[in-house]
Design a protein that fits this description.
Radius of gyration: 29 Å
Number of domains: 2
Distance between the termini: 25 Å
Shape: elongated
Helix content: 40-55%
Structural class: alpha+beta
Mean pLDDT: 82
Oligomer: single chain
Length: about 375
């Protein structure tokens, strides 16, 4: 039976290649769009997730960072530090601005993060080169921006209306919409004339795994501010960002799934119908409908599995190449997405193989020989 299924596929190499290629292309389309969605979703809150904070504190009523304005007086630092379970309170500046390279055209929207160079919290989490803790007059820029502008350590950039010397180049701080840059908290406060206040506080706990408990304690002691665990704050920020535009990318991933499954369905459905003559010959020599069903399903399974593996391999390759050539785009090939896509493809292939069964079982072997 396996030999017959394989022989049917090999009989027309062009048709086999088109069939397998159709499945692979569909899988690539589905995983690529899904990867874009997953990558954008991750980048939306990557700073929060990588901040090393257990609790985030913002202005009362503010529960996110994207498209939000938060100002928290520094006088609250002392009150928060007295809460049992608090290890460290680190104020940061966080706002958007324009950055450009002197002498070059064009500006880029960036998220400016002002960090305390002595705390080691809230700064870049992965470096390509240079120092991760900028002092006054220094800046850490993203690798994507550095590559696009051909910048290196020691070069200067203009941030809003001030010049800074590049002392570090960070990784994973680019996105399609913007990028993160890091300067000292003093410089960030000066750029916004924001003295005596920060935008957010990053709080670390004495005991790991007690962020929710600690957030509740701080909220009782300092009710004037908004207090959230890092996970809660991240989820809130992601939800707001999704409401502001991520739904479009989510819709694109659904459309890609539908189109991909339709490609697989039509490819395998047509390939099965075109073998009606061969199945008629099998019936003429004694094969029953049950046997034909097994051959058809096995033939579809071979094409689908090979195409699926090729599609996953191509997706993996693109996932590795895109960040190298297009640093602003982040693709994530998640195991859950691969499993979900594989199951969807197998179901589509099963339906595509079963639908022509009724036609094939009605094929008259004598008519096949007459033709």
């Amino acid at each position: 039976m396996f030999k017959i299924a394989l022989k049917n596929l090999r009989q027309d190499l062009t048709r086999m290649i088109l069939c397998i290629g159709g499945v692979a292309a569909a899988v690539l389309l589905i995983l690529a769009i899904n990867g874009v969605f997953a990558g954008v979703a991750k980048q939306l809150t990557i700073y929060i997730d990588e901040s090393k904070a257990d609790v985030l504190i913002s202005q009362s009523g503010v529960k996110n960072m994207h498209m939000a304005s938060s100002v928290v007086p520094l006088e609250f630092v002392g009150k928060i530090e007295k809460v049992p379970g608090v290890k460290k309170v680190v104020p940061i500046a966080y706002y958007s601005g324009m950055m450009k390279v002197p002498g070059q055209e064009g500006s880029k929207l960036v998220y400016i993060i002002g960090v305390d160079e002595t705390s080691g919290i809230g700064g870049p989490w992965k470096m390509a080169t240079g120092k991760s803790r900028p002092e006054q007059g220094e800046i850490v820029i993203s690798q994507g921006f550095a590559s696009s502008k051909r910048l290196k350590l020691g070069d200067r950039v203009q941030l809003i209306d001030s010049l800074f010397t590049i002392k570090g180049i960070s990784l994973e701080t680019d996105s399609m919409a913007s990028t993160f840059v890091f300067i000292s908290l003093k410089d960030a406060s000066s750029l916004r004339s924001q003295q005596g206040a920060a935008n957010y506080f990053l709080v670390t706990a004495v005991n790991l795994g007690e962020s929710e408990v600690l957030a509740g304690l701080i909220e009782k002691r300092v009710p004037e501010v908004n207090v959230s665990s890092r996970q809660t704050f991240s989820e809130s920020d992601r939800e707001i960002a999704i409401q502001m535009g991520m739904d479009i990318i989510r819709a694109m991933s659904v459309v890609a799934l539908v189109i991909g499954l339709m490609i697989i369905f039509m490819t395998l459905y047509t390939a099965t119908l075109e073998k009606s003559r061969e199945y008629g010959i099998l019936k003429a020599i004694g094969a029953d409908n049950r046997y034909l069903l097994k051959v058809i399903l096995l033939q579809a399974a071979i094409s689908t599995v090979i195409g699926l593996l090729i599609g996953i391999a191509m997706s993996w390759g693109i996932n590795k190449l895109v960040p190298i050539y297009v640093p602003d785009v982040v693709l994530l090939l998640e195991p859950a997405a691969i499993i979900q896509t594989s199951l969807s493809v197998m179901v589509a292939a099963l339906v595509a193989a079963l639908l022509p069964i009724l036609h094939i079982t009605r094929v008259d072997p004598m008519m096949v020989f007459k033709s």
